[in-house]
Structure formats: structure tokens, C-alpha cells
Amino acid sequence: MSTSDRRIIIATVNWFNEIADANPQIRRLVRYTKAWCDYREFARVDKKMPSGLVLTILVVNNFYSHDRDDIALKETMVNMEYTLSKNFSCGRPTPEQGENLLSSYTNKDYFMKCLSDFISNAKEALKESNGVNACAHWQKNFGDRFPCHLAKNETGNNTATVGLFTGASTNRPWGLKI
Questions:
Q1: Is residue 178 part of a domain?
Q2: Environment class of residue 159 by beta-carbon count within 10 Å: exposed (0-12), middle (13-18) or buried (19+)?
């Protein structure tokens, strides 16, 4: 690894840590997004998702803050989809600024379809008044990493705000530490 590469990596890590230290929810959303991409790649080994660095930058640049992680994640993904549909690029925020990290990415249509599917499933999960039903929608995005055994099989009073029982309360919807 060259000195220049080390400098870029250190600058990128410092950039992210400074942002994530100011708002820990960003770090959680990055983890959720990486878990989602990992699950998508496992499901389709012939299609690659963007790198972890690209995902991190996209989450930070499209971050939507909310008290609940499930709503923040869905809205961040909506912002990401909108941004990428206008201009499918991801500029490096550190040395070599402006370098488009998506310039050689070849699965744009697949990624945008996965992003759209994620948003649709998240919207359905957030509409559910029953925790088990909501969890089933989240499992479409995260697979078995999102355990439903903690979800309550009862209907809540406010269908618009039930969302993720396990994820919003534990901040780890897939149940494993990544």
C-alpha cells in the first residue's frame, strides 16, 4: 500500500468518525445499509453491490435524522434513491475529492432496483400495526439477520408508527453485531 493510499484511508476514517461521533445514528444506518447489501450479494452472487466506502458516503450525504432508526433508515434510502436517480455518482469527500467512486460500478440498474425494493418493503413495514407482519417485511431486506422472534404478535393502536419493534429498540435489526 502506497503512502498516498494510506493517507486517503486515514483521512476517510477520520472524516467518517468525526461525523458519526456527532450523530451515532449515522453509524447505525451505515451498518444497516451494509447488512442489506451483504444480504443482497449473498442472494445474487452474480451481482455486486457498491463497496462499503461508497455506501458509507451515500448514507452520510443523504442522512435523514429521526428518533426511530427504522424511519431514519427508510428516509435516508429515499433520499439516496432520489440523489442517485438524478446523478449516479459518489464523490470522495477526502483527498482526491470529487473522484467519482461509482464511475466503474457496472450494476447500476440492479442496485437502483434493490434500493427501490428496499424502500417499498420499508414503507410496508412501517404501515403495519402488527409487529410480526412488520418484521416479515424487514426480513425481505435483511433475511435471517433480522429475527422476528422478539416481535409482538398483537395489533398496536397507531398503525403509522408501529414499525420495527426489535430494530428500533435494539438498534441492531439483524440481531448480530457486525
A1: no
A2: middle
Does residue 53 sit within a domain?
Answer: yes
Rounded Cα–Cα distance for residues 37 and 170 (Å): 20
pLDDT above 70 covers a percentage of the chain that reads 86
Q: Which of 166, 165, 114, 162 is nearest to 140 (CA)?
A: 114
Query: What residues make up the domain containing 96?
Result: 3-170
Q: Which runs of consecutive H residues, i.e. helices, occur in the chain?
A: 3-22, 24-43, 52-61, 69-86, 108-127, 131-142, 165-170
pTM: 0.81
Of 146, 168, 171, give the one whose Cα is nearest residue 38. 146
- Any residues with CB less than 8 A from the CB of 165 and at least 6 apart, and which? 131, 134, 135, 150, 151, 152
In a domain, 175, yes or no: no
Q: How many domains does the chain have?
A: 1
- The reply to whether 38 falls in a domain is yes
Read off the pLDDT of residues 15-36 as tens digits, 9 standing for 90 and up: 888 888 899 999 999 999 999 9
Evaluate whether 76 touches 122 at the Cβ level (below 8 Å). no
